[in-house]
From TrEMBL:
<dbReference type="InterPro" id="IPR005025">
    <property type="entry name" value="FMN_Rdtase-like_dom"/>
</dbReference>
<protein>
    <submittedName>
        <fullName>Flavodoxin family protein</fullName>
    </submittedName>
</protein>
<dbReference type="Pfam" id="PF03358">
    <property type="entry name" value="FMN_red"/>
</dbReference>
<feature type="domain" description="NADPH-dependent FMN reductase-like">
    <location>
        <begin position="45"/>
        <end position="119"/>
    </location>
</feature>
<dbReference type="InterPro" id="IPR029039">
    <property type="entry name" value="Flavoprotein-like_sf"/>
</dbReference>
């Protein structure tokens, strides 16, 4: 069975809503043969990352950068996973009021360094997520998960 790892930092109601929509898409009953594992960015380990076949990353934009928690996660697993996870798919969702471009770019630099492959366009939301934003989050989760089906 394939494993999809959601690594998230969810400090606000807006990022929580986006996380829940991503999770709902990833766990849609029509997607079979994919185990979805959730880890807070401050709790994820290199073993979690190595055991996964694909990734969904969620972060708020903080001062034009990914959250410190997600940066800590990358710092924790980057070198232990550098050669072993190349080519694996990932998706990204970002919430912020400003500086979302920098947050997206910082995550994309880290995933490029790891050799991960973008499986879907990132979902970037400024301000409260509206219904169409949450639908895009659902689609992101479902797309990345469905890509891991056998």
């Amino acid at each position: 069975m394939a494993r999809l790892l959601i690594i998230h930092h969810t400090p606000s109601p807006h990022t929580q809503a986006m996380f829940e929509a991503v999770l709902a898409g990833a766990t849609d009953p029509e997607i079979e043969g994919v185990e979805v594992v959730r880890r807070a960015a401050l709790a994820v380990t290199a073993s979690d990352v190595l055991a996964a076949d694909g990734y969904l990353l969620g972060t708020p934009a903080n001062l034009g950068y990914m959250s410190g928690a997600l940066k800590h996660a990358f710092d924790t697993f980057y070198y232990p996973c550098l050669d072993s996870t190349t080519g694996r798919p990932y998706g990204l969702y970002v919430h912020g009021n400003e500086g979302t471009e920098g947050a997206q770019a910082s995550v994309e630099r880290a995933t490029t360094g790891l050799g991960w492959v973008k499986a879907a366009a990132p979902v970037v939301v400024s301000g409260p997520p509206a219904k169409p934003d949450l639908e895009r989050c659902w689609e992101l989760g479902a797309t990345v998960a469905a890509g891991l089906m056998d």
